[in-house]
Amino acid sequence: MADERKRYRISRRGMSFAGIAALLAALLLPQIAYAQNYPSKPVRLILPFGAGGVADVTARLVTERLGEKLGQRFVIENMPGAGGINAARAVLSSPADGYTLALFSNGTAISVSLFKNLTFNPVTDFVPVSSMGYFDFIFTTQAGSPYPTLAEFIKAAKQKPGALNVGTINVGSTQNLAAQLFKSTAGVDVTIVPFRSSPDVLIALLRGDIQMAIENYSAVQSHIADKAAVAVASSGPVRTTFLSDVPTVKEAGGGDFEARSWNAIFAPKGTPPEVVRTLNAALREVLDMPDLKKRALELGIEAKASSPEEILSRLKSDIDKWAEVIERAGIAKQ
């Protein structure tokens, strides 16, 4: 009788294991099949920026190759709006199936602390896929300026508190917050002047209204080439490949300074992990293409993929970093 009970328990255990295996197969096989067929139609990548900027150019450069790699078109949709709310809403209102994706940037991290009523949480409402590109900002002076190096600019700023002007685009932009960070790390009192656009910043620089500009390389590239402006520092942790003779802000005496922006692809929470892996693997191949890397560098962008965990970590650390800068600068929430 005891032997029969033992055999019965073993039989039930075996049936239990078999049942669990069958359940797991039922759950996983459709997802695996879905991923194998992904993408089977065009994919939307929604940008919280207008056309023509660094994020837009990066996205179009990368998604063209991504579409070729995966056999489906990737369609860029520009939905600019304060804090990226319009773009986020469009992505989150779409099915979490991998066919509607979001472009996040350093600006997404800034928005968490800059806007009172941000209607989405980039960390909990989305899942990371991969970075696409990183880029530094260039500290630039007018040709013939009495401050031909950043060290001399810092020295003059300390001698004449509040007398020197630094131009950036609008309050709360990465360039603008980089200027605020520079004031703190370099220990200088300069006046930060915000402008509506990059061309406005450069016009002000060339006519002497401001003594320094902090801008994307693509915005100042032609002026540097024409020798109308001089690059005196780059904002990243190491020198840029395209301006290797220009020191970083830290090297030039700007203290423990680093301000680097990035663009990345995120998907709405609930997107199948297999789809995320498919996209990540394809992006790694695309972003490692020599001709794409070369073209990106010409625009001042370092094309570089990441693991989902790496770009999520970057997003979180930048949320914390820029929150401190915003609070220290006393920038009112919008």
TrEMBL record:
It comes from the Bacteria. It holds the Pfam family TctC. InterPro entries: BUG (IPR005064), Bug_dom1 (IPR042100). Belongs to the UPF0065 (bug) family. This is TctC.
